[in-house]
Amino acid sequence: MAGWNAYIDNLMADGTCQDAAIVGYKDSPSVWAAVPGKTFVNITPAEVGVLVGKDRSSFFVNGLTLGGQKCSVIRDSLLQDGEFTMDLRTKSTALVLLMGKEGVHGGLINKKCYEMASHLRRSQY
């Protein structure tokens, strides 16, 4: 899905992120676009399944793995309407994943991710 690369370029443009991906999770989970050579390009369908799965109890204790890299979950807002911290609602078809650079405030990354997720949602993704 070459058209998705423009979204990744936009997310990376200001230099606050070290990695970004847009991942489809309906039907056949796959990475639609990601930064070449970085972690998120290696996200597997099984990892996507964990992200969107119903068992959310182990996220905070065990974390999860994305592209083979262990990640911590700070907040999971899957079941809260209007939140895009983890935009994993079943009405959507895409996940927006960002990894901020060291020293960049998480709120800035969260805002950027929220804005992209909102745009994609308005575009029916």
Automatic annotation (TrEMBL):
Localization, UniProt: Cytoplasm, Cytoskeleton
GO biological process: actin cytoskeleton organization; positive regulation of actin filament bundle assembly; regulation of actin filament polymerization
UniProt keyword Ubl conjugation present: yes
GO molecular-function terms, A-Z: actin binding
GO terms for cellular component: cytoplasm; cytoskeleton
Highest taxon, organism lineage: Eukaryota
Major site of localization recorded for this protein: cytoplasm
Keyword set, alphabetical order: Acetylation, Actin-binding, Cytoplasm, Cytoskeleton, Isopeptide bond, Phosphoprotein, Ubl conjugation
SMART domains in the record: PROF
Protein's UniProt keywords contain Acetylation: yes
Subunit structure: Found in a complex with XPO6, Ran, ACTB and PFN1. Interacts with ACTB. Interacts with VASP. Interacts with HTT. Interacts with SH3BGRL. Occurs in many kinds of cells as a complex with monomeric actin in a 1:1 ratio. Interacts with ACTMAP.
Homology family: Belongs to the profilin family.
Job of this protein: Binds to actin and affects the structure of the cytoskeleton. At high concentrations, profilin prevents the polymerization of actin, whereas it enhances it at low concentrations. By binding to PIP2, it inhibits the formation of IP3 and DG. Inhibits androgen receptor (AR) and HTT aggregation and binding of G-actin is essential for its inhibition of AR.
Protein name: Profilin
Gene from which the chain derives: PFN1
